[in-house]
Amino acid sequence: MDFWLFPNEGQTYNSLQYSLTSFSPFPEFGFKAKHFNFLEANQIRYSSVATPVTELYFKSVMQKGQSTDVFFTLNTSPRLNFSIAYRGLRSLGKYINQLSSTGNFRFTTSYNTKNGRYYANAHFVSQDILNGENGGITTIQDFESANPNFKNRERLEIYLTDAKSFLKGKRVFLDHTFRINSTAASNNLYVTHQFNYENKYFEYNQLTVPSSVNGGTIYRFGDSYRTSGINDQTHYNKTYNRVGLIYENTSLGKFQFFADDFFSNYYYNQILILDKITIPSSISQRINSVGGQYDYQKNKWKGKFIFSRSLTNQSLSNLDAKLRYDLNEKIELSFGYQT
């Protein structure tokens, strides 16, 4: 029996743990199949180290490919940390036109005052994900046969020889907190602010539109409005601000009341005219919301409950509840609900 691995590194992903998935109530960028290797704001980690730390990773991958991850961090003082990191991958894959090329650059800094009243975390990331898109193999029988000539997968005919997709994004993020009472006590009051600016860009490029299959010509995705040189571009940017007031009781947990402002632009490089209807090239929207959040952690219990509702014309409400119980060192019970 033959056993074949995934045809390329960085090309195919599976969601193995759905409980780790979070859903934003705000309008976000599409093309989520390309976002598995895209680091979101809540996936960035901050450091605090006694001495400088360097981590280097390198691995060879499929078909003349390399994967690397480099990380360096240091504290210039006990309260100020910087880190810089880069993760990269380039792999040709086992099939024609299946290149994977990704890069994730990230820079972080964290700071806190000597008396512990003010804490700040900030980061900048720049990421790009390039994939060759071959549209799949044309003759399934060749793939499923035991013909030794097709053990080399580069001999299989594919639909698209010059199509590619490209996702690129940059983000600036700041999250900081100030404790109003001068010394930490059993009851504390905090002021918080979070800022997130992000822009993303996605492009699908296909120079040759018709595919040649067994001497004939077909269109892989149906009729096309272009005979050659498809170049679809989608742009997106958002600005998010959230201010909040937190009351913390060491026994009861944290009670937070917040207000946020979300503004986004979603735009293309062209308009679409259908009969007498003209579809514009952009969508801009602003959503303002208010809400509350409760965080609880004691012994083996940990929970977070959030509710928010929009004040603007676009109706939006979000209820998100998570509860976890650590039964023992090996077993954890969790419950989550969002609407």
How would you describe the overall organization of this protein?
The two termini are about 45 Å apart. This protein is globular. About 15% of the residues are buried. Helix content is about 0%, strand content about 60%. The mean pLDDT is about 90. It has a 13-stranded antiparallel β-sheet with strand order 1-2-3-4-5-6-7-10-11-14-15-16-17, with no helix packed on it. Strands 8-9 form a two-stranded antiparallel ribbon. The chain has a two-stranded antiparallel sheet with strand order 12-13. The protein contains one helix and 17 strands. It is mainly β. The longest helix is centred in the middle third of the chain and has 5 residues, at about 140-145. The protein has one helix at about 140-145, and strands spanning about 55-60, 65-75, 80-90, 100-110, 120-130, 165-180, 185-210, 210-215, 215-220, 230-250, 255-270, 270-275, 275-280, 280-300, 300-310, 315-325, 330-339.
Instruction: Please describe the biggest sheet, giving its number of strands, its sense, and whether it closes into a barrel.
Output: 13 strands, antiparallel
What integer value in Å does the Rg equal? 25 Å
Shape: globular
Provide mean pLDDT, rounded: 92
Q: Which structural class matches the secondary elements?
A: mainly beta
Secondary-structure element series? EEEEEHEEEEEEEEEEEE
The oligomeric state is single chain
Biggest sheet: strand arrangement: 1-2-3-4-5-6-7-10-11-14-15-16-17
Strand content: over 45%
Q: State the end-to-end CA separation.
A: 46 Å
Helix content: under 10%
